[in-house]
Amino acid sequence: MSTFSQELFAGKTAIVTGGTSGLGAGSAQYLAELGATVYAVGLGSDKVTFPEHLDIRVREVDVTNDEHLMSLYSELDSLDILMPAAGISMGDRELEWEPFNKVLAIQLNGVYRTIQLAHPLLAAHGGSIVMVASMYSFFGGGKRAAYSAAKGGITQLTKSLAEAYAPDHIRVNAIAPGWIDTPLLAPLKADQALSDRILSRTPLGRYGTPEEIGKVTAFLASDAASFITGVVLPVDGGYLVTGI
Length: 244
Ligand SMILES: NC(=O)c1ccc[n+]([C@@H]2O[C@H](COP(=O)([O-])OP(=O)(O)OC[C@H]3O[C@@H](n4cnc5c(N)ncnc54)[C@H](O)[C@@H]3O)[C@@H](O)[C@H]2O)c1
Hints:
- This protein is α/β, with parallel strands linked by helices.
- 40% of the residues lie in helices and 16% in strands.
- The longest helix has 29 residues, at 97-125.
- Bound molecules: nicotinamide-adenine-dinucleotide.
- Nicotinamide-adenine-dinucleotide binds at residues 17-18, 20-24, 42-44, 61-64, 85-88, 106, 132, 134, 177, 179-180, 182-185.
């Protein structure tokens, strides 16, 4: 049984960047299962598949490329839900200048550009933006310097845009996922000692799933959250509440 009415987003249009893999793909599918027309966009779009009965349109879009974004937006008359989830991590190479810039270009500047160029579509009828923050929005990471700088920025951008866009009836919130089982986590999961440490600090004792991010995306994008804006919501199995 579905958590939400299967008609929840009937007639609504959503864009999920990073929708070609991981938690973006999971959220794209979940929104489509609730009736939305979903554009699942990102890199490697030829490798992703979704159930055929869902209205999911896959597009190859690099969020650092304005022409790609404008070409995508030219397909739409209006937009109700935007989830800018495209992201990369380059591990301890992020302390070097080029990798640092590359991660910021996608994870922070790319997110803002995705939103900024979509603003007219969202403002046409009001809408909802669901950002993707991280546990690294709250703590730093010696091996994730650019990633954590970007994700700290995402929390502030969420709050700032919540205020800036409120007059246009656009709500802006963020999910801060804990450790979600996606391809991004593959190197980390391959390190057994690290994986054990993560799971032992997670009260629910497991990794989250892309669908669990999709469910919270649906909630934040729905009318059930009509008075919620500027919030950064951890979805982490309790990871943040544990000290040692
Ligand atoms: N997996 C986790 O535990 C976790 C936790 C917190 C936050 N996040 C965030 O969730 C988001 C998605 O991560 P994931 O775990 O699903 O990773 P993933 O590697 O499975 O997916 C990343 C997605 O981003 C897209 N992408 C990368 N560079 C792009 C670009 N230049 N233009 C367009 N698309 C691009 C890829 O094509 C892919 O669709 C990221 O912002 C990540 O930081 C993930």
